């Protein structure tokens, strides 16, 4: 398994390109299963999770061709051969569950292995199943697989209120509802930019959807969907991660294509910490206003709140802030696995249940650390960039699931970072 070696070496300066959103792409790809006609995605990120979804779709008989070095994905599901998503692929990535809604809606039947994914809490899929039950589906859990069956005549419109916000369950239910007979109303739906992006793509394919970006989605089912070409929205998590690089190391960095509207709550916290964020034609220009950043408290919430996927990276910033900050994780239990690793670098962190109290120290010290999940991996790289000496981040395979060319992108800003090939 590869490692990343980072040496703290001062300010970072320059422009950094931001890719299309992994999480948007992972729900846009299964949307191909809804239609016989081609779906082409542009601005796709080049990541191992995208390759896993490619393999999954291909295992169902879909054609997926990566063009322009993977930036364009040309897909067609005119000749699907299977409605069963096998354990061997699904276990690698939780987002595999997103094939369930489209398969069920188009074929009236689907079998999907229960997913695995990052080790950040229990992460069940009950809400995905309940939302589809509200459209008349019958669900059975057998041999580790969800066996889903639509009533004869196909899914029918229904009303479902999510007891709490789930991004994936909203996406799955939204895709299923596009082909259900009649009207589906999804209440307390997720409002993330990735949901809006999915809805826009489905609309291009002919779906009738109202309310994307609000907490109520109303979908008028249609008989069939057509083809479309769609550009994947900017990755707001990659954006936020790289915005933190100059915040932690000093310097001035422009994140190309970034928009404040993708990350308002996050930008407000950066402002309170003393970091300036300016929206320009090119993207978001980030710089430290003066001296050491100030401690700020953060609570993770569904969009438009502070994203859980930026909590680990924000903690890396708070490790050297002036004062004490409390980070509260409200989306996933067990999402502070980066804390003990940061402590190995000299951070002062006290984790109690869903709260982490971070007391800023002057400077972190490089150390060998272990990447435990995707966002934790990158938080350790950020911490290493600001630390004294060398930090070896081991077990970085999670990183490649969500960040393309980290070494190249940060290296171009002046960071001393290199990949060490595993045995
Ligand atoms: C998506 C993102 C992930 C992000 C998360 C929250 C993708 C591929 N992943 O994950 O990066 O961290 O949103 O912004 O888009 N839950 C249930 N039952 C369910 C579904 C979810 O209890 O059926 C719980 C989860 O365990 C979690 C909470 O709901 O505690 C929110 O999870 P959810 O929004 O569904 O996350 P994902 O869609 O898996």
Q: Quick summary of this structure?
A:
With 423 residues, the chain is an alpha/beta fold. It contains 14 helices and 24 strands.
Protein model, in words:
It contains 14 helices and 24 strands. The strands form 6 sheets. It has a 4-stranded mixed β-sheet. The longest helix has 14 residues, at 236-249. It is of the alpha/beta class. The radius of gyration is 21 Å and the shape is elongated. A hairpin with a 2-residue loop joins strand 20 (348-352) and strand 21. The site of uridine-diphosphate-N-acetylglucosamine (UD1) has 20 residues, from helix 1, helix 5 and helix 6.
Percent of residues in helical segments? 25-40%
**From the structure provided, what is the oligomeric state, counting identical versus distinct chains?**
single chain
Strand content: 25-35%
Low-confidence stretches: none
Largest sheet: 4 strands, mixed
* Count of distinct strands: 24
Separation of the first and last Cα atoms: 7 Å
**Number of contiguous helices:** 14
């Amino acid at each position: 398994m590869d490692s990343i070696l980072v040496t703290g070496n001062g300010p970072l300066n320059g422009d950094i390109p931001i890719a299309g959103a992994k999480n948007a792409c992972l729900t846009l790809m299964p949307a191909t299963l809804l239609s016989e006609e081609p779906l082409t995605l542009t601005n796709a990120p080049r990541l191992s999770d995208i390759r896993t979804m490619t393999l999954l779709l291909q295992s169902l008989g879909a054609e997926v061709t990566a063009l322009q070095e993977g930036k364009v994905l040309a897909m067609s599901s005119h000749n699907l051969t299977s409605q069963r998503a096998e354990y061997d692929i699904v276990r690698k990535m939780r987002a595999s569950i997103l094939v369930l809604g489209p398969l069920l809606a188009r074929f009236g039947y689907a079998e999907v292995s229960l997913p695995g994914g990052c080790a950040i809490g229990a992460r069940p899929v009950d809400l995905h199943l309940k939302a589809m039950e509200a459209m008349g589906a019958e669900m059975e859990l057998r041999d580790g697989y969800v066996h889903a069956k639509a009533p004869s005549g196909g899914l029918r419109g229904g009303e479902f209120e999510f007891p709490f916000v789930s991004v994936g369950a909203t996406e799955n239910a939204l895709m299923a509802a596009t082909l259900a007979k009649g009207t589906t109303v999804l209440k307390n739906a997720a409002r993330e930019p990735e949901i809006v992006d999915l809805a826009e793509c489905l609309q291009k394919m002919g779906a009738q959807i109202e309310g994307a970006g609000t907490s109520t989605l109303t979908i008028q089912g249609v008989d069939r969907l057509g083809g479309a070409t769609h550009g994947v929205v900017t990755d707001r998590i990659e954006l936020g991660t790289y915005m933190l690089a100059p915040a932690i190391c000093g310097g001035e960095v422009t994140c190309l294509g970034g928009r404040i509207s993708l990350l308002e709550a996050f930008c407000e916290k950066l402002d309170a910490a003393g970091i300036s964020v300016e929206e320009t034609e090119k993207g978001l220009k980030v710089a430290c206003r003066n001296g050491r950043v100030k401690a700020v408290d953060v609570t993770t919430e569904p969009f438009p709140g502070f994203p859980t996927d930026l909590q680990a990276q924000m903690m890396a910033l708070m490790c050297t802030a002036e004062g004490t900050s409390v980070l509260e994780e409200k989306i996933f239990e067990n999402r502070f696995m980066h804390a003990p690793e940061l402590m190995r670098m000299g951070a002062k962190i006290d984790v109690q249940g869903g709260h982490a109290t971070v007391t800023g120290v002057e400077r972190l010290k490089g150390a060998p650390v272990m990447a435990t999940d995707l966002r934790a991996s990158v938080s350790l790289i950020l911490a290493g960039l600001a630390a004294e000496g060398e930090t070896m981040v081991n077990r970085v395979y999670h990183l490649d699931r969500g960040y393309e060319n980290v070494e190249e992108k940060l290296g171009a800003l002046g960071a001393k970072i290199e990949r060490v090939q595993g045995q």
